[in-house]
Amino acid sequence: MSQQPDPPVPQDPNAINIELSEEVAEGEYANLAMIAHSSSEFVIDFIRLMPGLPKAKVKARIVVTPEHAKRLLAALSDNIERFEQTFGPIKQQPDMPSYPMNFGGTMGEA
User: Fold this and answer.
1) Which residues pair with 82 in a beta bridge?
2) Number of structural domains found in the chain
3) Least packed by Cβ within 10 Å: which of 51, 84, 89, 110?
4) Are 66 and 42 contacting, i.e. CB atoms less than 8 angstroms apart?
């Protein structure tokens, strides 16, 4: 008697097929983030600042809508909460000097 193959698992109609190239999968290290916004978008620059080097380098710039910025904030907050439940509170360094950068809008730092 031959076995019938398992029926295909129904896929979520809202699922998104996401492609991740090898280059992007490697990731980029950043230890500073600068955030600017306008009425229609948030610009998040991920920066690598290395001791002893005269300038920092933007490794990635991500531009999102205000709605997606708020969703990102909620997702990051949720993940930090779960991280701290597992590994304990994240220790924060005393206030670091700010690195001015003019994007022509309101500036925040993360």
Assistant:
1) none
2) 1
3) 51
4) yes
pTM of the model: 0.70
pLDDT of residue 101: 45
Residue range 13-24, pLDDT digits in tens = 888 899 999 999
**Of 17 and 104, the one with more pLDDT:** 17
Task: Let me know if 59 is exposed, middle or buried by CB neighbors in 10 A (0-12, 13-18, 19+).
Answer: middle
How far apart are the C-alpha atoms of 8 and 94, rounded to whole Å? 54
Tell me how many degrees the CA angle 91-24-76 measures, rounded to the nearest 5. 35
Could you tell me if residue 22 is inside a domain? no
Distance CA 46, CA 61 (A): 6
Q: Which residues pair with 74 in a beta bridge?
A: none
For the CA atoms of 96, 102, 103, 107, the dihedral, rounded to the nearest 10 degrees, stands at 40
